[in-house]
TrEMBL record:
The chain crosses the membrane at residues 49-67, 73-95. It comes from Streptomyces meridianus. This is DUF6251 family protein. The keyword Transmembrane applies. Keywords: Membrane, Transmembrane, Transmembrane helix. It comes from the Bacteria. Residues 101-121 are annotated as: Disordered.
Length: 121
C-alpha cells in the first residue's frame, strides 16, 4: 500500500531553502458528466435549418437580422391600417349623425337615401 503522507522536511548543506517533494497522485474516482440536452428555441429553428441545408452564414445572418425587422415592420403597418380604418368609421358615423341632427327632415331623408343605396349593392 502506498503512503500518501508528505515527506519529512530535510535540510541540505548545499541549499538553504526547502524543496518539497511532490506526492504521487491519489487515485481519482471517474468523473460523472451530467449533460442536459434541450430542444432548440423556436427563434433559432430557421437558422439551424439554413446551416444544415448547406446555405452560408449570410443566410443565417439575414434571418437573424431581417426576421425581427420584418415582424416589426408588418406590425407597424397593421397598426397604422387599423388606426386609419377606425378614424374613417368614426368620421363617417359623426358625419351621418351630424347630417341627421342638423338637417332636420331633409337630413333624415338624405340619410335614409344613403342607407337604401347601400342596401341595394
Amino acid at each position: 500500500m502506498t503512503e500518501y503522507l508528505p515527506v519529512p522536511h530535510q535540510h541540505s548543506a548545499d541549499c538553504g531553502c526547502y524543496r518539497p517533494e511532490y506526492l504521487p497522485a491519489a487515485p481519482q474516482p471517474p468523473q460523472i458528466v451530467h449533460q442536459h440536452i434541450h430542444q432548440a428555441p423556436p427563434d433559432r429553428t430557421l437558422q439551424r435549418l439554413a446551416l444544415g441545408a448547406g446555405m452560408g452564414g449570410g443566410a443565417v445572418a439575414a434571418g437573424v437580422y431581417f426576421g425581427p425587422l420584418l415582424v416589426g415592420a408588418l406590425s407597424a403597418i397593421a397598426i397604422n391600417l387599423a388606426l386609419v380604418a377606425f378614424v374613417v368609421v368614426a368620421v363617417a358615423w359623426g358625419l351621418s349623425t351630424a347630417v341627421k341632427s342638423i338637417g332636420g327632415s331633409d337630413g333624415k331623408a338624405a340619410a335614409e337615401n344613403l342607407s337604401k343605396a347601400r342596401k341595394r349593392r
